[in-house]
Amino acid sequence: MNVPGVTLQVDTPEALAELCRRLDGCDWQAPDTAFHREKTSYPQFCLLQLATPDLMAWVDPLTVPDLGPLLELLNGEQIVKVFHAARQDLEIFYHLTGRVPAPVFDTQVAAPLLGHPDQAGYGALVSAVLGVNLSKGHARADWTRRPLPAKQLEYALDDVRYLARLYPQLRDELQQRGRLQWLAEDFAALVDPAQYENPPASAWRRIRGTDRLRAAQLAVLQKLAAWREQSAQQENRPRNWLVRDDALLDIARQMPASRKDLEHMRGLNERLVRRYGDTLLTLIAEARTAKPEPLPAGGSPVRLDHGQEALVDALTAVVRLRAAEQQLNPSVLASRKDLERLAAGQRDLALLRGWKKALIGEDLCAMIEGGMGLEVKDGRLAITRPGS
């Protein structure tokens, strides 16, 4: 497939109508967004690029604020939306319309099933599959400025120019190998609206170091993180502009009881204490005796005994054997940390969801439960099942 030849500039309502006319009836399209988030809680949508087999377009939401007809097309269930690392783009569409465009195909999620590294970057994947080396010159560009320089627009269009070539190639190879359906559950998870809602009550889960807090401290942190998230959303400001993560952790550890205590804490400036000091003290007092929400199962370090360590080694052998059968990198199937958590009894794990569950997760559980084993045949390690 050649690079799409027609490029449309969409910065008027009339140009938007023409683009929608051309897109009507397409089986798939590859969208990408450019946004600005340094000074806001929600991403500021600055540019939409998209490609089909026949055309490319860039759409300026700052000069065409009503993108309703185009967003309706994007939300159409008959059109596959192709992304690379879709989450940030899908978050923007969710905040614009209250819906997550579906169905989707994410080339970053799909690529490991064809032997590419897990979490491969777009440039690396384009280079590996298409032999094209992309420029990185505008990676930190300011997308709010107008007019956008021509080179910056070309850089933005590259994000869909080659995505429109990647998708058919990856899709067809997956289909030939019988692996396309493996991705159904992973892609369904990407379009779950819960992924993009960011409820204040769950904000504490994004903060590192919670596993080192005592119960009362954890309750304080959860209360403070919820307040910070709600305030950031209401004021549309980055959460760390209110209070940084490390400062929240320090407050939770020390649980100050007065303004004087707050003023003597590092990381809290005078303005913060003056504006929010009473609120912080009230929240701390309320949370001191509250019961915290439990840490996620994977939040604490796993400690294994010698028998469990040996089990992890056996599980690693199963992973390596299955990966060799499927011509995949073993790290794509499961990391040692995944296997340690599995051996410790945890079951809310990525390797027990989606295509990984069918390919390796069920085998690993069978190994742990005694329904599968390992033996040496003709000098080679092999997987066996009782009675086979």
Protein traits:
alpha/beta; DNA polymerase, domain 1; 47% helix; 17 helices; 11% strand; 388 residues; 3 domains; six-stranded mixed beta sheet; two-stranded antiparallel sheet; Nucleotidyltransferase, domain 5
Tell me about this structure:
The model has no long low-confidence stretch (mean pLDDT 91). The two termini are 48 Å apart. Helix content is 47%, strand content 11%. It has a six-stranded mixed sheet with strand order 1-4-3-2-5-6, sandwiched between helices. Strands 7-8 form a two-stranded antiparallel ribbon. Strand 3 (44-51) and strand 4 (55-59) form a beta hairpin. The chain has three domains: 6-196, Ribonuclease H-like superfamily/Ribonuclease H (Nucleotidyltransferase, domain 5, 2-Layer Sandwich); 201-287, DNA polymerase, domain 1 (Orthogonal Bundle), CATH 1.10.150; 306-384, HRDC domain (DNA polymerase, domain 1, Orthogonal Bundle), CATH 1.10.150.80. It has 388 residues and is an alpha/beta fold. The protein contains 17 helices and eight strands. Helix 9 crosses helix 13 (270-287), helix 14 crosses helix 16 (336-343) and helix 14 crosses helix 17 (354-368). It has helices at residues 13-23, 68-74, 87-97, 107-110, 122-130, 150-161, 163-176, 184-190, 215-235, 239-242, 245-254, 259-263, 270-287, 306-326, 330-333, 336-343, 354-368; strands at 6-10, 28-36, 44-51, 55-59, 80-83, 104-106, 373-377, 380-384.
